[in-house]
Amino acid sequence: MNPDLIAQLAEQVDEAARTGQTLTMLTAGHPALDIDAAYSVQRASIARRVARGERLVGMKMGLTSFAKMEQMGVHDPIYGHLTDAMILPNGGQLQLKGLVHPRVEPEIAFTLASDLCGQPTPEQALAAVASVHSAIEIIDSRYTNFKFTLIDVVADNTSACRYVVSEGIPLGGMDLGNLKIEMDVGGREHRKGSSQAILDHPAKSLARLAAMLDARQEGLVAGQTVLAGAATAAVHVAAGDQVSVQVEGLPDVHFSISA
Predict the structure, then answer these.
(1) Packing angle of the helix pair 35-51, 3-19 (nearest 10 deg)
(2) Residue 248 has what DSSP assignment?
(3) Which of 16, 102, 119, 220 has the fewest CB atoms inside 10 Å of its own CB, making it the most exposed?
(4) What is the pLDDT of residue 67?
């Protein structure tokens, strides 16, 4: 796709995220936009953030539920980039000003001890992990009336907004395959899930991310954080909410939303 158009679309999604303004889905005006072009838009929008002084600190996986992939008619999850401006401290407070459609998801996160690239097995992916964390991702689609296609989501950095991770613990011999995960949102919404919902095992999500990046001659870097994907459906949040996630065997993670 025309590099000038990629830059133009990247500016649109970046400005929407930066200012909290809504955005008409890109595919409405550019129906030929495909998944490869959407990732190019995503990278160009992240480059704009980096040029403003943000630092790339990790990656996130999305669409890691097999049922959701089948529903969307795709065979691969999607991924986005994380910058230091997206970090919310554990126990911190989120400001809703500037957000459009904020939702939260319970996740498991990894911090890498070494670079990870190529086509690793899940076992090889775990060997690159320094620590594992419980996590909450705050997603925020900027599209008007919450209408978008998968292509639009990818271009918009898979709705990445903020994320919170717990204190990390060494992986050791912990089996991450079927950990109980619970999320409470404001006392009104309670979700229960399992790490098995994340591509059957979070390690498979990490390995799949490395392989997807390898297809673009990219890889993961030691010290980066990876959000492996959601264990339950996302939940809308509102002012005054307290959000907490408990993952079996891992430290808890929580934050509040400014009233």
Answers:
(1) 60
(2) T
(3) 119
(4) 67
Pick from 236, 254, 256, 243: nearest CA to 102: 236
What is the structure's pLDDT at 169?
Answer: 96
Is 75 strand, coil or helix?
coil
Residue 200: closest CA among 181, 173, 178 = 178
Terminal alpha carbon distance of the chain: 44
- Phi, psi of 130, deg, nearest 5: -90, -40
Closest CA to 10 of 57, 58, 56, 50: 50
Q: Which of 77, 115, 79 is nearest to 199 (CA)?
A: 77
The torsion angles phi and psi of 37, rounded to 5 degrees, stand at: -65, -35
Residues of the chain with pLDDT under 70: 67, 71-72
User: Which H/E stretch holds residue 184?
Assistant: strand 180-185
Reading the block at residue 76, the tokens are 């691969």
Q: Is the pTM of this model over 0.70?
A: yes
Please check whether residue 183 is in contact with residue 166, taking contact to mean a CB–CB distance below 8 angstroms.
no
CA torsion sign for 229, 231, 163, 99 is positive
Q: What is the dihedral of CA 248, 109, 121, 193, to 10 degrees?
A: 40
> Domains in the chain, start-ordered, CATH in brackets?
3-257 (3.90.850.10)
Distances in whole angstroms, Cα of residue 15 to Cα of each of 30, 115, 153, 172, 236? 18, 32, 15, 42, 23
Please give the Cα distance from 130 to 110 (Å, whole number). Answer: 7
In this predicted structure, what is the pLDDT of residue 246? 98
